[in-house]
Amino acid sequence: MRTLYVRIIVMTMAIMIASALIAFAATNIYYQHFLKPENDKKVTHIAENIVDLFEENPNQSIADYLTAMTDLGYTFYLVTPEGDALTFGNPFSSEHLDKSHINHVFHGNTYHGIANYPWKPFVTGFFDNEVKNTIGVPIQVNGDTHALFVRPNSTQQFGEMRIFLAILLVLALLFSFLLVLTSSRYIVKPIKKLTEATRKIAAGNYHLKLDVNRKDEIGRLANDFSTMSSSLARTEEKRQEFVSNVSHEIQSPLTSIQGFSQALQEEEMSEAEQQRYLAIIESESKRLSALSKQLLTLSNLDSEVDINDFVPFDLTEQLKEVVLTMEWQWREKQIAIELDTPPTTIIGEPKLLQQVWVNLIANAIRYTDSGGKISIHTATDKSYVQVTVKDTGIGISEEDLPQLFDRFYKVDKARTRTENSTGLGLSIVKKIMEVHGGTIMVESELGKGSVFTVSLPQK
Fold first, then answer.
1. pTM of the entire structure?
2. Closest CA to 137 of 159, 113, 110, 117
3. Calpha distance 345→363 (Å, rounded)
4. Strand 135-141's sheet: what is its strand order?
5. 244: pLDDT strictly greater than 60
6. Cβ distance 443 to 451 under 8 Å?
7. Cα 75 to Cα 92: distance, rounded to the nearest angstrom
8. Higher local confidence (pLDDT), 212 or 379
9. What is the spatial distance between Cα 119 and Cα 127, in angstroms, rounded to a whole number?
10. What's the chain's average pLDDT?
């Protein structure tokens, strides 16, 4: 019973059999408590009528009379005063009956064997063809009192019906089993497809489409499975793209370092050229170092960040510290910095959030021409703290905005490469926002600058 198909069949059949047994037992209880007393009264009335009809014509033979009555569907057990017993009709399966009951009838009383028949589980008693399961009445034969015991001949009265019910029950069970076999295949078939699809996904094949057109739970499961497969396919594509980008970003400075190092070893050149080559090697080495640090940061952010590291701190002081730290950069380009940051306390991981402000302000400085302006503004409401970094720089095209926070995405690859950009800064910013339960949005237009808005929840 290892497969779901077999389990469904076995469980369904077990339920059907158990239900049949319970229904039979319940029916038997109902018969014992309600139908058996009524049946006893009915047979008693019939037995009294049979006696009355005979005693109205006492000259006829009792044997011929009872034999004729058997054609009406009854079985008789007649006990003479001498103790002899005669059976008329279908023989009883058991003729045992206590003498006290027989003497009780001889004294003019009625024996209610049907009503007093002992209760047996799963045996209704209605079909037990025994003398003690009869109605006993006194009958006068040639002036002597005899004991006449009467019960319906169930075989004669209900023989065809019993066969009909038996055939009906057998056919119902048979067809039920056949339908269970068929319907179970219908239920299990999409599950088998899901199992096969799971194996394919485990083997690395994420491009799957399940042909399951159902609206029930299994259909919804198949749809969710297809959605998961598509999500895994996109994740795998991003993973491969990420590996390709990392390889490319690492390979480029390594090639430069290797080429200029060989040139320094093999060629004769002036001291000025040597210094230029060494400066290039140093620059590429710094770019490699920055790339490795950012990759390590992303790796740490992808793992779970402990919220116990979140502490309350002064956001305004942190922003001022970042601006002062980068003073030589914006002063060199004669960029005006405008700070509108009223005292604000937030809860978060200070080092990570500092990296957010450094990245956003550094980008604003990098892409703002000399004489431009950068505005940093904070605002609070009941739920969020907003930090806005606005510049008057070159702006970002509308087609680049949707991919701006993707890893290794660069708006101007030729320009950013000369400035040691790795394309990971904004993706790190977005990840830090996700860790803090915040968001980052950007609005920009070519030639008119950009506005980055960071929203952090008030905790």
1. 0.47
2. 110
3. 25
4. 85-88, 74-79, 144-152, 135-141, 111-112
5. yes
6. yes
7. 8
8. 379
9. 13
10. 82
The answer to whether residue 459 scores a pLDDT higher than 70 is: no
Is residue 132 within 8 A of residue 149, CB to CB? The reply is no
DSSP 272-303: HHHHHHHHHHHHHHHHHHHHHHHHHHHHHHHS
Question: What digits encode the pLDDT tens for the residues 83-140?
Answer: 899 999 888 888 999 999 999 999 999 999 888 888 766 556 677 888 999 999 999 9
Phi/psi at 218 (nearest 5 deg)?
Answer: -65, -40
- Whole-angstrom distance, CA of residue 244 vs CA of residue 11: 53
d(CA 189, CA 211): 11
User: Residue 200 and residue 67: Cα distance in Å, rounded?
Assistant: 81
In sequence order, the 6+-apart residues with CB closer than 8 A to the CB of 117 are 36, 125, 128, 132, 133
* Single-letter amino acid code for the residue at 248: H
Q: Which of 135, 128, 44, 47 is closest to 94 using CA atoms?
A: 128
Query: Residue holding tokens 């990971």?
Result: 424
Task: Name the helix (H) or strand (E) containing 379.
Answer: strand 373-380
Instruction: Assess contact for 55 and 139: CB atoms under 8 A.
Output: yes
Helices 271-302, 425-435: inter-axial angle, 10-degree rounding: 20
Q: How many whole angstroms separate alpha carbon 74 and alpha carbon 90?
A: 8
148 pLDDT higher than 90: yes
Residue length of the chain: 459
End-to-end alpha-carbon separation of the chain, Å?
Answer: 54
Distances from the Cα of 62 to the Cα of 51, 86, 136, 199, 425, angstroms = 10, 11, 16, 85, 116
For strand 336-340 and strand 373-380, is the pairing parallel, antiparallel, or unpaired?
Answer: parallel
**Residue 83: what residue type?**
G
Residue 228, φ and ψ in degrees, nearest 5: -60, -40
With tokens 């793209």, the residue in question is: 241
Instruction: Tell whether the torsion through CA atoms of 390, 395, 399 and 404 is positive or negative.
Output: negative
6-64 pLDDT, tens digit each? 777 788 888 888 888 888 788 888 878 888 888 889 999 999 999 999 988 878 889 99
Longest dimension (CA), the chain: 156
- The type of residue at 401 is L
Buried b (16+ CB within 10 A) or exposed e, 186-215: eebebbebbeebeeebeeeebebebebeee
